[in-house]
Amino acid sequence: MADAKKLFIKTYGCQMNVYDSERMAEALESDGYEQTQDMNDADMILLNTCHIREKAAEKVYSDLGRLKDLHDEKPDLKIGVAGCVAQAEGEEIMRRQPMVDLVVGPQTYHRLPQLMEKVNAGEQALDTDFPEEDKFDHLPKRELPARNPSAFLTVQEGCDKFCAFCVVPYTRGAEVSRPAARLLKEAQALVDRGVREITLLGQNVNAYHGHKEGLAGLIWQMSEITGLERIRFTTSHPNDMDEALIEAHGTCDKLMPYLHLPIQSGSDRILKAMNRKHTADQYRDLIARIRDARPDLLLSGDFIVGFPGETEEDFEATMQLVRDVHYGQAYSFKYSARPGTPAAEKEDVPEEVAKDRLYRLQALLSEQQKQTQDSMVGRDVHVLFEKTGRQDGQLIGKSEYLHAVHAVAPADMIGTVQPVRIIEAQANSLTAELLHT
Ligand code: SAH
Ligand code: SF4
Ligand code: F3S
Known about the structure:
By secondary structure, the chain is an alpha/beta fold. Helices cover 36% and strands 22% of the residues. The chain is built from 13 helices and 19 strands. The protein has helices spanning 15-29, 54-73, 83-96, 112-120, 135-138, 168-171, 180-192, 214-222, 243-251, 268-273, 280-293, 312-325, 351-375; strands at 5-11, 33-35, 44-49, 78-82, 102-104, 125-127, 150-154, 156-157, 176-177, 197-201, 230-234, 258-260, 298-305, 329-334, 380-388, 394-399, 404-408, 417-425, 430-434. The strands form 5 sheets. It has a 6-stranded parallel sheet with strand order 2-1-3-4-5-6, with helices on both faces. Helix 12 links the parallel strand 13 (298-305) and strand 14. Helix 9 (243-251) packs parallel to helix 11 (280-293) and helix 12 runs parallel beside helix 13. The chain is globular and about 60 Å long. It starts with a strand and ends with a strand. It binds S-adenosyl-L-homocysteine, iron/sulfur cluster and FE3-S4 cluster. Iron/sulfur cluster is lined by residues 159, 161-163, 166, 168-169, 203-204, 237.
C-alpha cells in the first residue's frame, strides 16, 4: 500500500475552529491523508482561519506569503484555506495567492472529498456556500481510537445577534441548532473513546434550541451518560441565560462551575451602539442570580475598548463594571473595524487612546486574575488529567474552574478525575499535590 499522504492543519481563532479542524482531518482521511505535526513533512497544508479582527485576517496572508517558499521547493504541495477568512474573502485569497488550491468555508467542508477531486486534477476549488443540507449529516462518523479526555462538540452554529462590530453572522451564517438526539449519540461515541469532559460549542451556545428544553435540557440529558464526568459550554450571550440554565449551574453536578459570559462594555450608551440589547445593570443582576445559584462559579468575559464613539466616561464605566463583577479571567481587545459591519462606517477612536485604554483594562483584569489564582492556594479541587507535563513524572489537567493544574502523578491517571490540593499559584497555572484517599 502506498504511504499515506500527510496533512498539516494550522488552526486560528475560536474553539469552533478547533472542532472544525478535527472534522476536516476526518473528512480528508477518505482522500488518503493522515495528520502530521510537521509542516515541512506535509503534502497538504490547510489553514483554518479567523476573520474576527483585522490582525487575525491579515495573519493568513502573511502566513501564505511564507508558505510560498515551501511551495516553490515542493510544487506538488497542496495548499488550502478554510474557516472564516475563506468564507469572507474566498476569491480575494485566490487572487492574492494563486498557489492556493482550495478555499472552503465553515459550512461546506463536508464536501472536501469532492473538492479534492478537483484539486487532484490540478484545478482550483472554491466552495463558500451556505448549503441547505446539514454538513454533519455528510461527515464521516467519529469512530476513531482513544483520544484526549477533553473534547469539543459543536451543538449550535451561526449567530442572529448582529452586534454592530462583529463578522460572525456573516462568516458563519444564521443560527442553526443540531438535534439533541444526534448530539447525545456523538457524545456517547466520544465517551466510548475515553472522553471524560465535553465542552458544548456554539457562537451563541445558550440560544441552542435543538432540545425542547433548550441548552439546559441538553445538558441534563447528556449528564446521564455514564463515564462522562464533566460538561461545559461556550460562548454565551447574556440575553439567552435562561432560568433553567442558571438553575442547572446550581444543581447539575456534571456542569462545571465556570462561565464565559461576555459583555464587551460597561457603558449603556456603548452597549446600545453595539446592539447588545441589554444594559450594564441587567448584566450585573444576571451575574448576581448566577452566583446565587453557584457561589463559587469562576466568571470569564470579553471586552472591546475603543469602540467608535467611546469616551473616557464610557471607558470608566467598563472599568467600574469589571471592579463590580470581578472576573477570574477575561479577554480584552482593541476594537477592529471589520468590512461590512455597521460599526465600520463610524469614526474610530484614535489609536493611542484605544491602546492606552486596553493597557489600563488589561492591568485591572490581570490583577483580578492574580487574586483569583492566589485565592486557590490551600484549596482542594478536582483535576481531570489530560497529558504528561514538561517535567518528569508530572501530569497536566484542568480544575473544575478551568484552571490549568500540574501535579506529580502516575501516568495512568491520565483520563481520570483526581482530588488534589493546590500548593502554589502562577499567573496562568496552579501547582497541586495529589490527595491520597
Ligand atoms: N459569540 C461570542 C464571541 C464571538 S467573537 C459572543 O458573542 O460573545 C469573540 C470576541 O471577539 C467577542 O466577544 C469580542 O469581544 C471580540 N470581537 C469580536 N469582534 C471584534 C472586533 N470587530 N474588534 C475587536 N474585538 C472583537
Ligand atoms: Fe458576534 Fe455578537 Fe453574535 Fe457574539 S453575539 S457572535 S459578538 S454578533
Ligand atoms: Fe474567528 Fe470565525 Fe471563530 S471569525 S472567532 S474563527 S467564528
